[in-house]
Amino acid sequence: MLTIEGLSRHFGGVYALRDVDMAVARGELRGVIGPNGAGKSTLFHLIAGHLRADHGGVTFAGRRLDRLPAHRRAALGIAIVFQEARVFRGMTVRENVMVGAHAATRAGFWTAALRLPAHAREERLIRARADAALARVGLDGWADRPAETLPLGRQRSLQLARALCAEPRLLLLDEPASGLRAAEREALAGLIADLRRTGLTIMLVEHDVGLVTRLADRITVLDLGRVIAEGTPEQVRGDPRVVAAYLGEEAGS
Ligand SMILES: Nc1ncnc2c1ncn2[C@@H]1O[C@H](COP(=O)(O)OP(=O)(O)OP(=O)(O)O)[C@@H](O)[C@H]1O
């Protein structure tokens, strides 16, 4: 489904990502872990097209993405839920989700924002898709509430619904559990597991290694921009290089 070859990106003198190879199978849930600054977010931004690579490339569903801007990659089925993503205040839960679909449609965000007449039919379609996405994350009873009144755990579900509304084939989740309380984390983990069971390919960056270990089929470990280990959660957990990388982080912080 996704093949990454020799992917590199530097900022100034620092390699955020260096010579990364990775292959993610269709329907797989791939965990990506590593200490702070390991390059996890950079990897996601390179896949989604928000950053350009210095070297190497990304192939998605048989297609080279390297020259495609982010919106073309979104149209091909790549959705990203950003770290620290926010809900739009002053909009309902449903409207928040509809923005996700507008971003991926031909008419686009501005046509939607300006409410042009050509947009009316598409609007109904998108509303139906938004409601389906809300149902998928268990927010169907919340559609008409102001988004900012949702508890944080439900706001994360809303961000997931927004991504799902574009009907992606690959979902990139950048630290979806950060800042959540234990019960909210559990609910989110259940939701991600449900999405995986529907056949969606998911990549999950998360500092909560326990959560990744429970959810992922395979885990890739990054450190200082390089892949230092990859395998099943059991294989990765026992890998001395992984233990050393995390011990290094603890000693340094
Ligand atoms: N836009 C940027 N400009 C300069 N340096 C950057 C930029 N983005 C990332 N970096 C650097 O690249 C390296 C990798 O950063 P990245 O955010 O990808 O790591 P990360 O694994 O996601 O970290 P964290 O777990 O702390 O979010 C870090 O050294 C970071 O400071």
TrEMBL record:
Outline the extent of the ABC transporter domain.
2-249
Say if the entry is tagged with keyword Oxidoreductase: no
Q: Which GO terms describe its molecular function?
A: ATP binding
- Gene3D superfamilies, per database record: P-loop containing nucleotide triphosphate hydrolases (3.40.50.300)
Q: Which UniProt keywords apply?
A: ATP-binding, Nucleotide-binding, Transport
InterPro entries listed in its UniProt record: AAA+_ATPase, ABC_AA/LPS_Transport, ABC_transporter-like_ATP-bd, BCA_ABC_TP_C, P-loop_NTPase
**Record's superkingdom?**
Bacteria
**Which PROSITE patterns does its entry note?**
ABC_TRANSPORTER_2
Q: Does the keyword Transport apply?
A: yes
Record PANTHER family: CONSERVED COMPONENT OF ABC TRANSPORTER FOR NATURAL AMINO ACIDS, CONSERVED COMPONENT OF ABC TRANSPORTER FOR NATURAL AMINO ACIDS-RELATED
Q: What is this protein called?
A: ABC transporter ATP-binding protein
